Amino acid sequence: MKKYEFTGNTKVVPQPTILENDSITIREIRAIRDIATHGVRAGDVGGWIENEENLSHEGDSWVGKDAYVYDRSEVVGDALVVCSKISGGAHIGGNAYVQDSQILGKNSSIVDDAYVRGVIVHGTLHAHSNANFEDCVIFQYVKAMDEDIVVYTSNFYGENRLSKHTRIEKSNIHDVQFRQGTHRILGSSIQSASGTELIGDIELEDVRLDALTTTLQTSEKIVLKHVHAVSLMDIDIKGSVVMNGVRLEKGTILHLRRDIQFIGGFYPEANKHERYGIHIMSDNCSCKDVLIQGHARIKGSWNMRRSKISGLVTLESDGTSTSILSNSTIRDCVTISVPSYMKGVHLGNVVLEGDDCYKNKEDLLSIGSETVF
User: Fold this and answer.
1) Residue spans per domain, the chain
2) What predicted TM-score, i.e. pTM, was given to this entire model?
3) DSSP characters for 65-114?
């Protein structure tokens, strides 16, 4: 049984081709039966389609007012398209919802329970399962096939796969959230006016991270390589982490809740006295349950546990063994420098503040070091 008819009203829309500026005539539709799923009553005027191949008479699919569907595209199942342009052989099906969008590329598919709003697709978008895209521009290719993919206010360049095994390259990503799975982000910019949350097995490489708050959580491992974090108030890392060349600028608070391994500095050639946020230059620095904030500078081999570091603190260990900091608080402008003629130091259960400098064996013994070796 048919569910719509043509009203007789037509429009001509441009349809440029490689060789010439072409056009397509689209026709307005009107419901001839109720479509309860979308609150459509018989007699309601809908949107515009090129022909009946663009909107199936089966199911409760519907093209609402101010929506255009043409150029080999189809809306089937129980899908709803509102205030959007759909062309280029796109397939909209299942319970998908598309609003205020322009799907203009080639052979996109939006199916299952996917939700797409305020999205412009110049390339191809495959949004399946319950993928949620809002206020995005897709210049080339995005494929989101699994559950719980939520992307807001993002520009995607290159080929991107968002799933339980997500991979994003060369993208300008805004307000992104990944739930579970494996996420690898390369050569990209992640920006957020509020917060960014990545949960799963995470790897960020050559990434600029610009967000007020960031949460990285995993039961596996987080790898951060050549990551520059700016305008960041709080970064909360819940999991085992490897940091290779990470720069955290001024004002950042770093929460380290499990094991963390630091390798190298963001700018190896930088002046060693340069101050910018949290600067860690080490091939062997591990932390667990450690909070770092201010303009901390950490150099050399350290093992830090259950401690807080804040202010213009400098920790340097040039000894041949790993120095240990445990159950301690160091703040203000304190400097601790383990000289090269010593193996290392174990600072436990100490509170240091002010602008004191501890640079030799006698100084380190004076603050109650558990061990100087």
Assistant:
1) 1-105
2) 0.71
3) TT-EE-TT-EE-TT-EEES-EE-SS-EE-TT-EEES-EE-SSS-EE-TT-
